[in-house]
Amino acid sequence: MEKEKNKKVKIKEYLEQIRSSLTSQADPEKAEAMASYMRDQFPFYGLRAAERRKILRKYMRQENRPGYTQLETVIKKLWQLPEREFQYFAQELILKYQNEYTEDIISLFEYMITHKSWWDTVDHIAKKLVGEYFKIFPHKRDQKIKSWLDSDNIWLQRTALLFQLGYKEETDAQLLFDIIEELKEIDEFFIQKAIGWALREYSKTEPIAVVKFANTHQLSTLSEREALKVVRKNK
């Protein structure tokens, strides 16, 4: 494990191979449609998730990917490249290192959340990366969540709302409710939508608790509608 952690690859060469693989399979027509769907926030190569993963699979393999000590450098370089597929690859690459996470990797997650921020990356990072991180390092959770809530950055705040999406019966309901209570007055679509989404997901595990919370707290119309979708459907 230590040998793998300290393994070195030629970063410039690794990134150039990824770029070349994506460029060779680019679809300009799909790229335009994908950029439009994302409100023209980012350019694309025009590769759907399954296509992209197939093309870049070899760069995920243990024998080809960077060592853990190179990970931050590689991720930040990928994050700075223009096409959105680079960021999708970067956030999926990090999943390969879960067994090697150290406490300080949360700073890298924060970098990814606060740079080139949009729902397509932030939601993945919240659930897949941050959610797992707090399971591994639970003592880091409360202090970090507080700093995000105090940050005035809607993407860090959205992450605080969504990191428990996959927790199901392990959800800390009181924490979730406290976070919602703190953020529910913010007039921002991505916050209000996330409140509803977080509650809706938890309603699949504890519908009574979610209904009670919705009935006793003044939520926005959007948040309440999203929160109670599953409950109302199952009536």
UniProtKB/TrEMBL annotation:
InterPro entries on file: ARM-type_fold, DNA_alkylation
Source superkingdom: Bacteria
Gene3D superfamilies: ARM repeat domains (1.25.40.290), Hypothetical protein (EF3068) (1.20.1660.10)
A family per Pfam: DNA_alkylation
Alphabetized PANTHER family for the sequence: ARMADILLO-TYPE FOLD (PTHR34070), DNA ALKYLATION REPAIR PROTEIN (PTHR34070:SF1)
Protein name: DNA-7-methylguanine glycosylase
